[in-house]
Amino acid sequence: MGMKASLVPTLEPSNSVAFHFESIEWLPMFSGVHHERFHINRLEDYRSRLKFPLPPHRKTVYDFVFLKRGFSKRSKGLNHYTFGEGEFFFLSPYQITTHEFMSEDVEGFFCHFDAQLFRTSSFQTSLDSFHFLQFLNNPIVKIPINAKVPILNSLERLETLYVREDKQDIELIASYLLTLLMEVRRFGKNESINQPHNSALQLTQQFKNALMQEIYSKQTVAEYADLLNVTPNHLNKCVKACTKKTAQDLLNDMLILEAKSLLKYSHLQIAEIAVKLCNQTPSNFSRFFKSQTGITPKQYLQLD
What is the dotted CATH code of the domain comprising 199-301? Predict the structure, then answer.
C-alpha cells in the first residue's frame, strides 16, 4: 500500500524524561531499578519544569495521571479531553498523544507501568479486563469523593515502594498497582469512545489506522475510501456517526499531528515540510496550519 512510517516519536521509559524535561540533569531523579517497568511521581514536584504543549508522541508503556487538584488537557489518538479534580486519564501503549496543558496549581500523581510487571511467577494477570486501558475506550474515570481514600492510599503506597529502590519490592508494587486498577474499575463506565458497536465503528477504526500509516502518501478522503473499499460518502457517514467529526476533520487532525512532529523533530524547513507532508506551497501550508491550530508553523517553532 506504499506505507510510510510516521515521524511521531515512540518513547521508551529511558528517553521519556529528556522528552518531557529537555534537560539531562533530571535523569538521575528518575533512574533506579524500577524505572523501566514502573515509575510514579507527584505532579506538583515537577509541574514547574514541564513546558507545554508537549508535541505528539507515543510511549511503549501504559501511563496514567490522577488529579487531586487543578486540571489538564490531553489527547488520546484524535480525541481531546479536559479532566480535573478526582479524575484519572489512562493511556495505552503506542497510542498517539499530546499533552496540551496542565494548570500551575495541579496536584496529583503521574505513573507509567509495563504490562510485564504482571507476568511474574506470582502474577498472570491480563489487563484486558480493565476497559479504561483499552486502545479505543474512554480514558477518563471519575472517582466519587467518598471513594478517594483507598485510591490515594494505593497511590501513596506505590510512591513509597518506588522510592525504596528495592528489587524485592517489584511484586509488591504489582500487587498494589493491581489493587488500584481494580478500585478504579468499580467507577469507570465500560463504554467505547465511539458509541456505535457495529460495522461503522469498525470502519472508523480502520480509517484511523490507515491515517496513521498512509498520511504521507494519501491526502484526500477519497483515497482512503478507495483503500478501504467504500464510497467517500459512506466513510464520512460512518466516521461522523462514531466521532461527531467528518472524515476530513480526522484527516486534518492527523496532518497536524505529523506536521507538528516534523516541525519539532526533523531538520526540514517549513517549505520542505509543506511539500513532504501536504504537497502544498509554503503559504498554503501555513494557512492550513493556522486554520487548525490558531498559530502559524513559524510561531509553533518559537513555542517554549
Answer: 1.10.10.60
